[in-house]
Amino acid sequence: MPYDYELFVSYRRSPTTGQWVKNHLIPRLSDRLQEVSPTTVRICCDFQIESGSRWPDRLKQGLQNSQILLAVWSADYFRSSWCMAEWRSFREREHALGLFSALQPQGLVYPIRYADGSHFHPEAGIAQCNKDFTRLNYPDEIFRSSPKYLEFDLLIQEMAEEIVDRLQVVPPWQPGFPIIEPEPLPAATMPRPVL
Fold it and tell me: Which long-range contacts (CB under 8 A, 24 or more apart) does 50-53 make?
């Protein structure tokens, strides 16, 4: 069975990161990938999931059937149980395939820095962030009209070329790719009624 997607986008759905991913990263990256790829690059991102779908199941299906994880890292990325589950799912896949090791240093996670860098998960320190967007992480639509958008677009073009190169060496899809479940949220404590 072939992959359904080439890229799965993992990011924290905060008011800033979420809007930046939706307004700028995905539209521009998708366009730039199509310009340099020999085949169509399909991107799985949660905001594309149809209304009424079983969101967790659809997300896990996209995760399991994507070639590469594009991780948009910020300090709050590592506080999200969903983001950590997505990242760990791909780390487990790399381990199962013998990737991201001394013998095979190329992995399946393509991390970019959206914000911070000082408060990342300790395991993130062994992976080099491919691109740093900390000075170009404006979520609002008006960003497209700013001079900084040209710098943003240059980074996206470089990213697109690197991702297309990486896609050429991804191992074939396997039905047993692991999916790590997000940690459950703590149960809400209900106040006891006063009698």
Answer: none
